[in-house]
Amino acid sequence: MNKNTVLSWATFIMIFMGFLLIGLGVFRYDEIAGWGFSAVGIGFFANAWVFNALKGRV
Questions:
Q1: Domain count of the fold of the chain
Q2: What are 7-44's pLDDT values in tens digits?
Q3: Rounded Cα–Cα distance for residues 55 and 52 (Å)
Q4: Alpha-carbon distance 4 to 8, whole Å?
Q5: DSSP assignment of 18-53, as one string?
Q6: Residue 17 lies in domain
């Protein structure tokens, strides 16, 4: 595996975890903890965006 493949897998895993955390925040936790889960999920999307932007440049 080269570095672009590793970044692709890392991006995929980060997007999957982002959807999972946002889903937990929306559907599982109705109290204030849901806001935290959703915020962390959005942070995972931001990290995945950075990983995707780094593909081909590193």
A1: 1
A2: 899 999 999 999 999 999 999 888 888 999 999 999 99
A3: 5
A4: 6
A5: HHHHHHIIIII--STHHHHHHHHHHHHHHHHHHHHH
A6: 3-54
